[in-house]
């Protein structure tokens, strides 16, 4: 099964992977900018997200193989290809880089470390999503009202509602496979490990207001697996670095992806 993807631009390949509950739409604005700057940009939906296939299974090992299938399908040149992932997509990207280092030139990870993540902070989001009576919905506002009982932040609700769409019979459905994500939340928070490090260049972009990459991660956890890495902090951004500081992320990735 092939991941759904969108492609734009010409040049050295830049493959982008979104985070949990996201999809390729989240990166369209930056993807367009990078394509206009001379990159061949491929933005993919990970399994159980967006327009990609749904399966009962969800793990980083499986996502790594999904990414390999996409790379094979696109016949990407390993000498010039950059893989970028945010949050869950960042962990999937790390897993792929460690599993298949020969398929990449460099790696970009946005606001996530290889250590295990405490997924308890997702409880309210899961409660909100599970509270939406999707089969009985008549309007998107009804879905937002249900989410609001658990998720007070309007921006988070709007992000989640991007996954809600109408079927041909005018009923609503989620693009993400909520049942599988519910079941495998622990696996989504799992640590990324490897006996062999990824020796090629790696850029970790950290939000200064986020705790997803700690000082200990920067000093020990990341260099242990990615010894040829650098960590760049965007001071005034949180976990959604690319949405909060798009110009800074654009510049960092553009410069990194075009280095020799």
From TrEMBL:
- List where this protein forms a coiled coil: none
Q: Which InterPro entries match?
A: AB_hydrolase_1 (IPR000073), AB_hydrolase_fold (IPR029058)
Keywords tagged on the record: Hydrolase
Q: Which SUPFAM superfamilies match?
A: alpha/beta-Hydrolases (SSF53474)
* UniProt key word Cytoplasm: no
Every AB hydrolase-1 domain range: 13-246
Q: Which Pfam families match?
A: Abhydrolase_1
GO: which molecular function terms? hydrolase activity
The protein's name is Alpha/beta fold hydrolase
